[in-house]
Amino acid sequence: MKDIPKELFEGYVAFKYGHLRTQRARYRELAAKGQKPQAMIVGCCDSRAAPETIFDAVPGQLFVLRNVANLVPPYDPDGSFHSTSAALEYGVQALKVKDIIVMGHARCGGIAAALEGNHSADSPGDFIGKWISLADAAKADIEREPLSASARQERLEKHSVLRSVSNLRTFPWIEAQESKGKLKLHGAYFDIESGELSWYDKALGSFRVVEDGAKIPI
Known about the structure:
Elements: H1 6-22, H2 24-33, E1 39-44, H3 51-54, E2 62-67, H4 83-94, E3 99-105, H5 109-116, H6 128-132, H7 136-142, H8 149-168, H9 172-179, E4 184-190, E5 197-201, E6 206-209
Parallel strand pairs: 1-2, 1-3, 3-4
Antiparallel strand pairs: 4-5, 5-6
Helix pairs in contact: 7-8
């Protein structure tokens, strides 16, 4: 077992003799009956913003999709490989999740790259430049706003969440389920430094910090 990184090996041992023992019955049930998560999270692959940790989720509770900058592309069945779209299709069509939450976060490197403008489709690298260009529409929306550098980054982090929620509605089977009231779409934002979670309040048209004991507006 020398090939396993030391910290991962120690983490697995702690899981096996700690968490797994207390959750043994749940794992057996999940193995026998399959997963039935009610919510799907579209989050960033940033190691500091893990949805399962933020929501203190138990195994089988959340269907999590993570990519660079938690971006959702528009519906485009062009015959290419589409990991994000495939996960959305599985979550909605097969698992029949009731809620999809696009969750951005503070100090996002992908959004910083979008702001710096060094992410063009023909930039060095095979994939990241093209992917980050998905944030260009959100960037254009806020371009003329008089903001400081840090405020602009946060504004784009949040606005790109809303753009991704809009892109979710370009998927016909998502739009159909939402129109029937069987699926709800949400925007959320996690501040790494403070640990605060903000939820997009449609009635107010802005993100609001979720207070202790408060009901998330879903």
